[in-house]
Amino acid sequence: MSVLSGPRIETRRILHQGTPQWVTLAGDELLLGDGRRVREADATYLAPCEPTKILCIHLNYESRRIEFQAPELVTPTYFQKPTTALNAHRGVLCRPANCQYLNYEGEVAAVIGRPMRNVSRDEVWDYIAGFAPANDVGAQDFRDTDAGSMLRVKGQDGFCPIGPGLVRGVDVRESVLRTYLNGRVVQEGKVSEMTFGIDYQLADLCRHITLLPGDIVLTGTPANSRPMQPGDVVEVEVTGLGRLTNRVVEIPAPKHDVGHQPTDSKAVRSVALGSDSRKPSA
Q: With helix as H, strand as E and coil as C, how does the chain read?
């Protein structure tokens, strides 16, 4: 059955008494498979998948392309986050003390349900386990290094929160994505506004890369990605899928100064601040 059709089904994953457990939402409680119940407000969430890889598209919403005055896209380009970037609903986002441009990027995550290789666009939906809100967090202070790989920008520990759960039975193509910062809407875009649809991205990637169960594909963010500050609460909501919540905290800077250090260049600010970087100062 296609992930887009049928009744809405959501599964979540929590850490309960030291053991990972798959659960379903039952009002203000979570129901474990063995019949036990946990108050949802007390749950410690885990990511609702165990990926072997996390693949991400660079630029995919028309609003973001316009914001950056980029040429029209002919083909997508991608980058990869390490699996150690995985994070969950209500997990903290850590900004090193020597960084200042920790940006949110609300996205729809597609999670693979069975091995995919050389699958056509029409067949893609039968291979997806479900969808979830996600946040492609990035420390833009490292934009001056790693070229297009985004390794230190997007690959730091915890920079891929996803959840609360994995949802199927919702036609995500009709959904709207919104990002909230401290309760205020800061990003909004319809999934239909993607330049390259989810089916295109997965069919493109699996021509040469086998996608395995649990793998995550982050499918792009709309305009207005901006920096967060310690203490901020960021939420990514996708209609039909739920709302992912995380809080920003500050952690110490690395104790060694080996390697590329965070920078505050014009190139860094142009990405971190988007169109705001082009506004005249007061």
A: CCCCCCCCEEEEEEEECCEEEEEEEECCEEEECCCCEEEHHHCEEECCCCCCCEEEECCCEHHHHHHCCCCCCCCCCEEEECHHHEEECCCEEEEECCCCCEECCEEEEEEECCCECCCCCCCHHHHEEEEEEEECCEEHHHCCCCHHHCHHHHCCCCCEEECCEEEECCCHHHCEEEEEECCEEEEEEEHHHECCCHHHHHHHHCCCCCECCCCEEECCCCCCCCEECCCCEEEEEECCCEEEEEEEEEECCCCCCCCCCCCCCHHHHHHHCHHHHHCCCC
- Residue 26 in any domain: the answer is no
Inside any domain, residue 41: no
pLDDT at site 148? 82
Does a structural domain hold residue 25?
A: no
Alpha-carbon span 176 to 123, nearest angstrom: 23
pTM of the model: 0.96
What's the total number of domains in the chain? 1
In this structure, is residue 281 part of a structural domain? no
**What is the domain extent for residue 226?**
49-253+260-273
Render pLDDT for 230-278 as a digit per residue (tens, 0 to 9): 999 999 999 999 999 999 999 999 999 999 999 999 999 999 998 787 6
Q: Which residue carries 């005055």 as its tokens? A: 69
CATH number at residue 185: 3.90.850.10
Q: Which of 56, 52, 221, 80 is nearest to 149 (CA)?
A: 80
